[in-house]
Write a structure and sequence with these properties.
Elements: E1 2-8, E2 11-18, E3 21-28, E4 30-37, E5 43-47, E6 59-60, H1 66-74, E7 79-80
Antiparallel strand pairs: 1-2, 1-6, 2-3, 3-7, 4-5
Length: 82
Amino acid sequence: MAKFSHYVSGNLYYTVIIGDDKYQFPISTVEEDNDATSRLGRSLLYLSEDLGTTAFNAEIRGSELIRWIGKALEKEELIKVG
């Protein structure tokens, strides 16, 4: 089971236990559009299309988050926390 840890800077953070080790990984909830700018001259943020219709509960089967676990592995964002 993956457990929700916290939300910060546009990312949901979940923890999973693999073997005897605990890991944490982010799920980005926003995307930045550098081509579109607001009236203040800043990039605009949008809800990430990658979220789809996934329900992000306090606990969720790790297999339901495999897409984001794979992305975290690719980006070296799967962090050992315990």
